[in-house]
């Protein structure tokens, strides 16, 4: 019981820090899109460069974060030795990366379209290197169950980052993307400094034999990580490379990148569900009713995300003001990207069948198949359809991974998902979304009134069919008393 209480507490801290952190970072969207002119292409540059850094970070950490947990919990090894060996590996990869970047910055910046601004790439190269170096100490904090320190450092970075952005953009009038990267560099460097006391407490010892075992464990995780991150950022990397109008590419990417931020509300919801659900799944793995539990969890996850989808789309007349007026022409991609995020959440739920039977290689194959589909759609259709191809590429990629995981999973480890019930909710949500489009062009109050009524109809259907008031805690007791 004590272990479960500790798990619940740590999960809450990690989850809250991550979700609150993403929400606070979300506040930078209106700041950037209101202060960086659309035609400058600066927001598009930011979107593109951060996509590269996300991919490079996965490569530099080489799956060692998860590998650290695996071997540090093995009684055959000392945890400090495991950390030292993993850190030496990541540190070496990072050092080689920085040497190559600084040595070949001219051809690299020219190839990526930043010949006039190699400083952007140099700053972000240092940032991603520091992030890679920080990754293992952050993981070690989790291993040591130092959740408060973990969350505190994460929140310190975010608060400092937001504060400096407000100072530079609002108070000093520095509206160039240069300052976005510069502020990130300052904040990341500061957080790295805070890890120095922890590093001095480590008993450093490198173990070559252990490293070979760790690399054997980490490379499949690296493949899965590459496929996963490409599904998230490949469109933003590919776009400037294949869009026919080179001068307009960053402008269009900025429009897409800003509008996608509204759809990321769904990603935050999915992450919140993941933090709450993932520990329970493994805890329930030996229970007799586990398959029914997993089936019900999938159903309610989809119901909840469909409700969130309707809320976002219904209140788009208000939410659109999150981004600057010049960027709102791309708001049509929001429902498409949100649909892709729902598919990603479903894929995450489906992924437990192979995790529970130690067949994670299936996850790598499914993710790679989805990534291949996403890349194909983007490369083939961006030249003609622009960022609309990026949005539909996400649907194609996550949809492919989701369908493959479901089909194979039902053969390898079948779970009786209520497909008919889920389909009913999807059809209903789709119909209500279509009805919401009737209010386009109406006065805001009238549009919100209609859309809110449609959302309440969906809620009423949920209560009537799957969540009767009498079954709910607290509310149920009051409901029974009134009858």
Automatic annotation (TrEMBL):
The chain crosses the membrane at residues 12-29, 49-69, 81-108, 120-141, 153-171, 177-196, 217-234, 254-277, 298-318, 330-350, 362-380, 386-409, 421-438, 444-463. The keyword Cell membrane applies. Pfam families: Polysacc_synt_3. It is a multi-pass membrane protein. Keywords: Cell membrane, Membrane, Transmembrane, Transmembrane helix. It comes from the Bacteria. Its main location: membrane. The keyword Membrane applies. InterPro entries: Poly_Biosynth_Transport (IPR050833). It is found in: Cell membrane. GO terms for cellular component: plasma membrane. This is Lipopolysaccharide biosynthesis protein. It comes from Xylanibacter ruminicola. The lineage of its organism: Bacteria, Pseudomonadati, Bacteroidota, Bacteroidia, Bacteroidales.
